[in-house]
Amino acid sequence: MQKKIAQKLHNQYIKAQSKLHKLNYFFWECTSNCNLSCLHCGSDCKVIPDIKDMPVEDFIGIAKQVAKKYNPNEVMIVLTGGEPLMRKDLPEFGKKITALGFPWGMVSNGYLWTPELFRTLRNSGLRSATISLDGLEANHDWLRGKTGSFQRAINAISLLTSEKGMVYDVVTCVNQRNITELDNIKDLLIKTGVKKWRLFVIDPIGRAASNPELLLDSKQFKYVLDFIVENRNGKEISTSYGCDGYLDDYETKIRDGFFFCRAGVHVASILSNGDICACPNINRGFVQGNIYNDNFLDIWENKFIEFRNRSVFKTGICKDCKEWSNCRSDGMHLHEPGNESPLICYNKLLRGN
Predict the structure, then answer these.
(1) 172 phi and psi, to 5 degrees?
(2) Which band of pLDDT confidence, cut at 50, 70 and 90, is reported for residue 41?
(3) What residue spans of the chain are helical by DSSP H?
């Protein structure tokens, strides 16, 4: 009964936050270039040496707009890609964005991290980082498409764990190959000094949509969730689940609080070509505008309608679902324009139907 009451209060909170839509997490897809070829990539990034990236000043201009409406200290800017470190001008970016008052971090595959570069980035204001470790050596290198990427990721993680005041976490995309290694990965992360570990399952989007070896069945999915519950508040390392969707009885057991897809509510992104969207992982069909044609703040305030009023997705398998008020059709990244149902319902997968 207490959980039901808490869930209803949370649903009211989501409605209120959707109306307020205060921006507090801002992605910049600073490049579409990458040095790896991950089997589960949602952006289909490639190594293209001559690709032109958005100039730093173009994003700084948007950040200045944001700083006029919001307290920059309360808006976290996160660089993503591709691989952010394919750019050579991130120290310049860091100094400029820090001078404006924004905290900033990045999501990285860890391959290009060195002690010297890390120190330069820290001196430029780098506050947080997320590094992926997707199995022990053979399985990590397989998923990432490059021999040696495992050891590079471990080296990057070691830099983070040894840095005082650094905010970081490690994420693992669980698939059919590495699911049997979770205990071994946990032991390795503990040995490396990691305190927080997020586990994701791979969604059927991007390259993963055509690779069934990456997707979990109902039994495997439940195994992952039970593993997280078992290690949720471990003394040496704490586990949590990603943001895919609503998971009924597992809610509050696998992450802090109830499920809430904040895309377009608190989260926005500028993609590498200037497109304005929410999380970079979301289908490009939900792009809301472009910074080279539109005013970012006007777009943020007046668009993102389907992100904030999710009733437009109460169709297909979601139309008569009794969990609609709790789920709201799961994460926005599971939707495609013109498809009346999300690509997968993890609550149904959990139940085996």
Answers:
(1) -130, 125
(2) confident
(3) 2-20, 56-69, 90-99, 115-123, 137-144, 149-161, 182-192, 218-230, 296-302, 305-308, 324-327, 346-351
| Residue 290 CA from chain centroid, whole number | 21
Cα 290 to Cα 276: distance, rounded to the nearest angstrom: 5
- Strand-pair category, 76-80 with 267-270: unpaired
User: How do 126-132 and 76-80 pair as beta strands?
Assistant: unpaired
Radius of gyration for the chain, computed over Cα atoms and rounded to the nearest angstrom: 20
Distance separating alpha carbons of residues 206 and 59, to the nearest angstrom: 26
- CB pairs under 8 A, 24+ apart, for 323-326? 323/246, 323/248, 323/347, 325/11, 326/7, 326/11, 326/246, 326/248, 326/251, 326/258, 326/259
For residue 287, what are its two tokens?
Answer: 């792009």
Tokens for 299, please give them.
């777009």
- pLDDT tens-place string over residues 43-88: 654 545 567 899 999 999 999 999 999 999 999 999 999 999 999 9
What is the mean pLDDT of the segment spanning 315-336?
95
User: Which residue bears the tokens 């002690």?
Assistant: 115
Q: Around 352, how many Cα atoms within 13 Å sit in the side-chain half-sphere? A: 4
Placement of tokens 């495992």 in the chain: 150
3-state secondary structure (DSSP) of residue 299: helix
Q: 37 with 149: CB under 8 angstroms?
A: no
Q: Is the pTM of this model over 0.85?
A: yes
Which tokens go with 281? Answer: 């992982």
The model's confidence at residue 194, banded by pLDDT at 50, 70 and 90, is very high
Give the pair of three-digit tokens for residue 155. Answer: 């080296």
The DSSP bridge pattern shows strands 267-270 and 275-277 to be: antiparallel
